[in-house]
Amino acid sequence: MTATSALHYSDQLPMDDSRLELCPMALVERLGPLEIVYGRWDKVFGCWIYENGKPTRRASPASPLLDKRGKLSLSEIQLSVELEERNASIEAEEAVSEAFKHHLEEGIPGYSSKVSPMISRPNDVLYTDDTVWDVYDFEVLEKFHTFIELIPISVRQLAAQFGNNQWLVLEAIWTQPHFEFFVEQSVVDGSMGYVSACLMLAGWYSLNSIERQGLILEICSKKRRNVLSGLLKREVSHPTLKAVSKLRFDESDEPFWDDFFRVLANPRKAKALAHAKSLTPETIRNVAALPGKLCLPGMVSVLGEVDLREIIEARCNLDLNELDDRPVSRVRQILKHVRTEEDLEDRLDRIEAIIFEYQEFPSPPILGNGHLQPLSSFEALQLEAKEMRNCVDQFAEAVLRGRSYYYSWHGTERATVETTSQKNGAWILAEHLGPRNASLRKDTSLEIMKSVLEGQIECSCPGLEGKVSDA
Question: Which structural domain, as residue segments, surrounds residue 385?
Fold first, then answer.
């Protein structure tokens, strides 16, 4: 039988069933010139990549090896999900294992779980995250199961809470067994993010054994704020420390941690994140995208579900970073009361209206004259609405989106004039009404039509407006 590698190996070399071997010192997987060596817990725990028989670098599993119970997550847990979807009711682990083995032996078409358990690589580009491992290889699963069972169950159950950082925590506990008690306390008090952050920021995989011992001693004995300040080489604020402790996800790539702490360098964002009950990757990404002046503590939970910056920019056709302070203070007042997605949805129209007030209007599509005066700003629309007792100030969005443009008429009668754009790019006269939306006299309407026509001609053919007939 041939199968893709259990490792995230980009070339996906076909291997036979003997590619994995459980030796007295390690579990070894062979991939052509490469060997991935997983050191046994009862010997020297760790993971190394060998090329042509020589160790080249450390690595770690990219996907969680353990389920939340500390069991191998590659067989029973995957199968039970598949069986539940098929309306099967199998409770006992023995029954699950037998059913799993039956599926493997029968090779039922279409039955497969996308499982790619192994390598993540700090500084390694050979491995990707999208390889699918053939779950029919029962012998491979058995060897991984035996390898995992060498780790004490209490340690596995603790490490299992760290998602993709499980291997990192396992190595740290193996390096210094008393670290298990510190990790256990972090699980109890909800500060697992602090443990992961310290190990990743210190560059765990690049440290030698003495440096690892020293790091664990610091983590266990020094104040957390001082440890993080030393790793980041800058003073860490109390909100930053609180935010780090609330991380609840499996990010294990070093670039993520760099981005995360750049977000926390902004005092407003750090304060907002510190007030969250827990933090997810989506929350971090959406807070990072949002200008700090719009980050408020109460709405952080919403930012775990929606990208507020993307929503506002799409609706208002602007870059939020270019928004000046005048509308920001008003938008902040509205966002103070946002606690759910529904709250945000109810307030988006108001936020949009505020932002439109302060955006620069486009140039008038039809030139004005002494009687026909373009309303070329939101303030001008507001003044016109006040003088004419109408609601023209509510149409700023139409102006900014290029659908309409408004004018103030100062002739024998006062009027508010609307022009609208056509699909061919032309602008035509639309509604034109007097105070309180009253109808105009016929002669006034004719004067407005003439002025609009002259403005159109002047825009397209400068100098010809005087040739328009009075009739």
Answer: 372-467
Query: CA of 165: how far to CAs of 89, 143, 194, 260, in Å?
Result: 32, 22, 12, 16
Long-range Cβ contacts of 439-445 (<8 Å, 24+ apart): 440/413, 440/415, 441/413, 443/412, 444/409, 444/411, 444/412, 444/413, 444/415
The DSSP secondary structure of 188-252, one letter per residue, reads HHT-HHHHHHHHHHTTGGG--HHHHHHHHHHHHHS-HHHHHHHHHTSPPPHHHHHHHHTB-S---
Domain boundary among the residues 121, 151, 181 is at: 151
Distance between CA 413 and CA 441 in Å, rounded? 8
Is 88 within the bounds of a domain?
Answer: yes
- The answer to the question of residue 101 being in a domain is yes
Instruction: Mean pLDDT check: name the lowest of 124-138, 210-224, 357-371.
Output: 124-138
Taking only the tens place, the pLDDT of each residue in 400-452 is 889 999 999 999 999 999 999 998 888 999 999 999 999 999 999 999 999 99
Q: Evaluate whether residue 94 is within a structural domain.
A: yes
- The model's pLDDT over 88-136, given as tens digits with 9 standing for 90+, comes to 333 333 443 443 344 333 332 332 333 333 333 333 323 333 333 344 3
